[in-house]
Amino acid sequence: MRIFQRLTQTDGPRRPSSLAVLAAAPLMALGLALGVTAPAQDAQVINVSMESRAAESALTGCSGQSNRLLRFVGGSYVTKHDVCRVGEALAVEQARLGAMALANRALEAERDAAATRADALQAEVRALGQCRADELQAELDQREAETNTLLAMQESLTTQIAGLDQRVEACQAGVEGQASTEADLRDQIAALQAELVARDATIARLEQEAAAASAAEGHDDSRGTALLAMAEKWAADLERTTTALNAALSRKAALEGEARQAEAARAALQTDLAAAEAAARQASDDSTAEIARLQSLLDQALSQAEAAQTDFAAVGEMAGDLAAAQAEIERLEGVIEADAGAGTSMPSTAAADALNDGLQAWSAVASQARPEVEGLALPGDSLVLSGSESIFLTGSAEISETGQGLLDELAAEILSIMATLPADADWRLEVQGHADIRPTGARWPSNWELSAYRASAAVRALAEAGVPVERLAAVGLGEYHPLVDEATQAAYAMNRRLELRFR
């Protein structure tokens, strides 16, 4: 708007010239496209539309009568040829600013969409993390309760087995003691039986003697009675000994039966203990597997959270690119304003030729020094870097280590040539990004954005290497200007390129 006001100011109430209208029309269109129209612009737009036909008629005769003079703002005179050159330059800047405005809006839309996706993903990650944490805690509590129950069962079975072992040992001790008692009783019985036999023999002998004495002495009854009483006592002792022996044998049999029962109970408890230990091991294995599964789900949630953080970083990168695009728009506005104020200032063909000559010499040296860089060529007046994997990481606008080194060398060559040019030489380096026709994937809405990002990344690298930013311009042309119109990998590699052109 400042340019429009300066071009339309006159010494009197006369109407603005056709050249003024021509210079101001692109800026008015840019102001409308960017949404920065000043309050006074509405009335000026009407005046510009009325004067546009006069500007068109002034440009119609550009091919002839190049020496005719037209009155310009402030009383200066320029040829119609100069008017055409200025109009063409402003038209180029207008087209560039229109493309930059479109890219700016695309960046804003992508930034908003990425921010929305990041917020949704973050909310989902938080919800998933809380849900998984609750599930994990519940599973762990349940497994812990089951494990405690199994441990209590195992401890109880161990206690019972210890009691049975004590009982078995007591029974075995009783059986061994009874066996010793039985042996003693058997010895006593044998002795008693031997004594009984001896007594029976003695009794028989005494009876014979008694009979003989009775026959000889007239029946001595008292001595016979005494012998019979002694024989009866010995028989009673033998019977008592036999009864004691039978009682000991019965007790031994009872102890042996009790020992067998205790051993059977011990074996059953051992079986229960083995089953309980197997169940405890299975429960432990199940708990370990469940914990591993829940940990895997938690790792997935953390990965999604990291992806969300990556999306946030991408949003920040897009915001930086958006700021760079806005700065480029402001720079181009300044260029248009300077061109309109200078009137006849035009690009220096000599400076561009010198730079192109130096670029050609550098290209020949770089092709031999860097064989890893594919597609380095200089057809006509532009440097072409095809096969962008040599410059950028695959599917990305991030410059590779090889590409960074190549652009640093190019910046050094440009600075070297600049040292030989006049300080006021008018030139700029335009970096054009091109893509192949294949889709770019989820990150880039289209190949147009990818090519624009790559061109901007190359411009930033040259600026960081020392090339003045006012000498640089980045343009993304998408897949619409292929070098080879074929659907082959080789054609894709050639069409996926950067072109550097001095103007």
Summarize the structure.
The chain is mainly α. It is built from 9 helices and 7 strands.
Ends distance: 27 Å
SS-derived structural category: mainly alpha
Largest sheet composition: 5 strands, mixed
Please give the CATH architecture of the domain at 127-306.
Answer: Orthogonal Bundle
The amount of beta strand, in percent, is 5-15%
CATH class of the domain at 127-306: Mainly Alpha
What is the arithmetic mean of pLDDT? Answer: 71
Q: Rg to the nearest angstrom? A: 58 Å
Low-confidence stretches: 1-78, 342-347
Question: What is the fold named in CATH at topology level of the domain at 127-306?
Answer: Helix Hairpins
Query: Taking strands numbered 1, 2, ... along the chain, how are they ordered across the largest sheet?
Result: 3-4-7-5-6
As a percent range, the share of helical residues equals over 70%
Give helix and strand order, one letter per element, not per position.
HHHEEHHHEEHEHEHE
Tally of individual helices? 9
Q: Please state the overall shape, judged from the principal axes of the Cα atoms.
A: rod-shaped
Number of strands: 7
Please, could you describe this protein's structure?
The chain is mainly alpha-helical and 503 residues long. Among the domains are: 127-306, Helix Hairpins, CATH 1.10.287; 347-503, OmpA-like domain (60s Ribosomal Protein L30, Chain: A, 2-Layer Sandwich), CATH 3.30.1330. The protein has nine helices and seven strands, in the order αααββαααββαβαβαβ. Residues 1-78 and 342-347 have low confidence and may be disordered.
